[in-house]
Write a structure and sequence with these properties.
Number of helices: 11
Strand content: 5-15%
Number of strands: 10
Oligomer: single chain
Shape: globular
CATH class of the largest domain: Mainly Beta
């Protein structure tokens, strides 16, 4: 599922697409608000699961960051900012999109969906210059600014349109952002982000199986696959080994996040029977039945480690398919 992403391409649609600017009398603001709400529901699910995986595996990831689990929205990223602003009852552009379940932002109780924001540590993102509609740049700048404040000052004060302020302190998580595309059914990882299209079938799955999908993409990032492929080439053999490695790490990531690790096998069985068969199969990864076998083979060691240590330390015990500093790892003898 890993694909090369152009910088920023996955951030073009941060909310339900509003591409046209109809006459005011023709606008159904209730319908627009409902469309935005459906997107936000899917985004909330992705952020909840992503946070649980990134927080649960923080002790093993090679790179961690300070985070409060907050995601913003900017009306400038919509196709019709004025319609979106009116539909959500905002006077300016920036508001809360999601607060990931269990994160400092969610625990604070201050970050209700669509609550309008006027300052991020005394800096008002609403005053930043914006380009044409569907402009995602300010949203990236806002999240980068939050990350910088958390890293430099160990916290951030966020001011709301009603004058209230919330000051939050972060916790460490694995260094990956989780982003929802407003269209498409792909799931990709680019080293810094996991990006999933809103039409991906797993959004209808139970949470552990949906988490398995997110874990697969997160595995690509924490194992450094994108950079490794840049260095060693994206041959079919190389891509297939990185895909296999990401598959095998899925149950480890799930176990540390408190999910049933066997959900990884259930995901591949459910998804694969419909979407990974016959002419649709991309042979830079194993067939779905082989993937079920691969992730299932990890279960005995994960079960042993969880029972003995209460965690599945993949940094110490996971067998690599590639060597981070070199080529492919030797395959074990049978």
């Amino acid at each position: 599922m890993m694909r090369r992403l152009l910088a920023g391409a996955a951030a073009l649609l941060w909310a339900a697409p509003l591409m046209a600017q109809p006459a005011p009398a023709a606008i159904d603001y209730a319908a627009e608000r409902a469309a935005i709400g459906r997107f936000q529901d899917a985004d909330q699910r992705l952020q909840d699961v992503g946070w649980q995986l990134a927080r649960g595996n923080v002790g093993f990831c090679p790179k961690v960051v300070a985070s409060i689990g907050l995601q913003l929205q900017d009306m400038a990223s919509y196709g019709a900012p004025g319609i979106a602003r009116t539909a959500l009852g905002l006077s300016q552009d920036f508001a809360v999109q999601t607060a990931a379940r269990g994160s400092p932002a969610a625990v604070s109780g201050a970050f209700a969906r669509n609550r309008e924001i006027t300052a991020l540590e005394r800096m008002d993102p609403n005053t930043w210059p914006k380009r044409a509609n569907l402009d995602w740049h300010r949203l990236v700048w806002a999240h980068d600014h939050i990350d910088a404040m958390l890293a430099e000052h160990g916290g951030i004060a966020i001011t709301f349109a009603d004058g209230a302020e919330a000051r939050l302190q972060p916790v460490e998580v694995c260094a990956t952002r989780f982003e929802l595309m407003g269209e498409g059914d792909k799931a990709v990882a680019d080293g810094a982000r996991v990006v999933i299209g809103i039409e991906f079938p797993a959004f209808t799955y139970d949470e552990p199986e949906f988490a398995a999908l997110v874990a697969h993409e997160l595995a690509h990032n924490v194992l450094g696959h994108d950079a490794w492929l840049d260095t060693h080439g994206r041959s079919r053999r190389h891509v297939r080994r990185t895909e296999r490695e990401a598959d095998r790490l899925m149950p480890w990531l799930l176990a540390n996040a408190g999910y049933d690790p066997s959900a990884a096998a259930r995901f591949w069985e459910r998804w694969g029977k419909k979407h990974d068969a016959g002419l649709l199969m991309v042979r830079n990864h194993d067939g779905w039945d082989e993937r079920v076998e691969l992730v299932s083979a990890e279960m005995p060691l994960i079960t042993e480690l969880m029972g003995r240590e209460g965690r599945a330390d993949w940094a110490a015990h996971f067998r690599r398919e590639i060597t981070p500093e070199g080529g492919l790892a030797p395959r074990p003898k049978r």
